[in-house]
Amino acid sequence: MCLAGNRSPAQVLRRPVPDRLIVLTFDDAAVSHATYVAPLLKKYGFGGTFFVCEFREPPFADKTKYMSWAQIQGLHNLGFEVASHTLTHQHVNKMNRTQLGAELDSIEARCRAWRIPRPVTFAYPAYDTAPTATALLPERGYRFARAGGARTYDPAHDHPMLLPSFSIAGTDTAKVYGAIRQAHDGRVVILTVHGVPDVAHDWVTTPPALFEQYLRYLHEHHYKVIALRDLARYVNVAEALRLTPRYENLK
Ligand SMILES: [Zn+2]
């Protein structure tokens, strides 16, 4: 038996993880992702992943709050990753395998209809994780799934279906810079961002002036900023899937 956390870094890694590697992820299909975030990322040449869903409350039909699918397609056309956050923002620990499969089907079908590639990454609504999801996602071709936990991603130890991230919501800039500066010695910093601003769920908003300040900092300090799918350049996912899934410290 050679499961359980004893894969050597050399087996899991395709190449060394460089210092200053940041993954930017954006949740919930906030309208500001299309109107404000994407143009700003383009200006700096940064990558990013947009985890989309069709929120029920407030409803996805309200286009003052959420992107349309045409705008989501526009993100793909600009070179960004569009990925799955379930259809209805349903927590994976409240669904069985069939229900989760249906949620994944719905987002995949919409992507197909809008000529967006089938998603290969996933973000857990409310950072809730479950073994149902860590088993089903890779069977369906997903390579990485992101939760929370306010800690760095260590590819040699963290299971690819249970990636931790830091939220940058709010106005605590010291917390955000403290997170960014941990991207060294094989550790990747994944950031969770909601709307900039977030007019659907104001408790997760990031003020545009601060967001712009963070991007400028990443640019001036020569960080490499990528989408979640791009981690496959560094991580051998088939090997990494043999790591022990650990469900603690992901909220
Ligand atoms: Zn969400």
TL;DR?
This protein is of the alpha/beta class and 251 residues long. Helices cover 31% and strands 15% of the residues.
Secondary structure: elements and pairs:
Elements: H1 9-12, E1 21-27, H2 31-44, E2 49-52, H3 69-77, E3 81-84, H4 97-113, E4 121-123, H5 131-139, E5 144-149, E6 163-167, H6 173-180, E7 189-193, H7 208-220, E8 224-226, H8 237-240
Parallel strand pairs: 1-2, 1-7, 1-8, 2-3, 4-5, 5-6, 6-7
Helix pairs in contact: 2-7
The protein binds zinc ion.
Zinc ion (ZN) is lined by residues 27-28, 85, 89, 125.
Q: Helicity range of the residues?
A: 25-40%
**What are the secondary-structure elements, in order, as H or E?**
HEHEHEHEHEEHEHEH
CATH topology: TIM Barrel
End-to-end separation: 30 Å
Count up the domains.
1
CATH class: Alpha Beta
Secondary structure tally, helices: 8
Indicate the mean pLDDT: 96
**Major sheet:** 8 strands, parallel
- Number of β-strand runs: 8
Query: Which small-molecule species are bound to the chains here?
Result: zinc ion
